[in-house]
Amino acid sequence: MGDLEPIDRRSTAAIVADRIRAAIMRGTFPPGTQLGEVDLAARLGVSRGPLREAMQRLVAEGLLRSERHRGLFVRDLDAADVRDVYTARTAVERAAALLLLAEPDRGPAVARLTAAIAAMEAAAAAGDAVALADADHDFHAELVAASGSPRLHRMARTLLVETRMCLAALQQTAPPPEDLLAEHRTLRDALAAGDADLMTRVLEAHMADAVSRIVDVAPPPALPA
Predict the structure, then answer these.
(1) 202 exposed, middle or buried (CB, 10 Å; 0-12, 13-18, 19+)?
(2) Does the pTM of the predicted model rise above 0.90?
C-alpha cells in the first residue's frame, strides 16, 4: 500500500454524474429523453470513458434506464413511482429528523434550516417558482445532511432528484407559497423545540399532500367542440 498516493479530488466520472443528475432534476432532460454519448461527451467536454461510468452510476441510482440495442433514457415515472418516491422520502427524512432530535445541541441544524427558509421566502417574494422549488429542495437536503448520516444523505440525494422528476412528469400544481413556507417553518420550529411528535406529524402530512397534488391533479377541462 506504500506506493499508493491519496486521492485529493473527485473523479471526472463523479463530476459528470453530478452535472447530468442536476440537468435531470431541472428538467433539461425530461423523462423519456434519450441520452446520446457522442452529444453529451461534446457538451461536457469529456471523453466517453468517464461519461459511460457516470451514466452507469445514474442507472444504478434509478435515474436512467438502459434499453438493449437502443441506449440510455431518463426514466419515466408513473403514479406508483410517485407514491414510492414519497414513501421512501418520508422514511429517510423521518430517520434524519429523529437523529437530529436526539442531539443535545440542535442549534447548527436549526440555523441551516433557517437559512434555507430565508431562501424560500426570497423566492416567494420575487414570484420565482423555480427558485422556490430549488430552495424547497435545499431545505430537505439540509435536513438530511445535518443528521450526519452519509447513507441517509446519499439516499436523499437520489430521492430529491426523483421528486423533481415527479413534478415535471406529472405537472404538479404547487401549494400556495405561504402554505409551503408555513409547513417548513413548523418543521424547523419542531426541531428547535425537540418536539418529535410534531416533527413527524408535519413531515408525514407534508409528504402526503405532495403525493395528492402530483397524482390527483384533475385533468384540464375539455375544449368545446
Answers:
(1) buried
(2) no
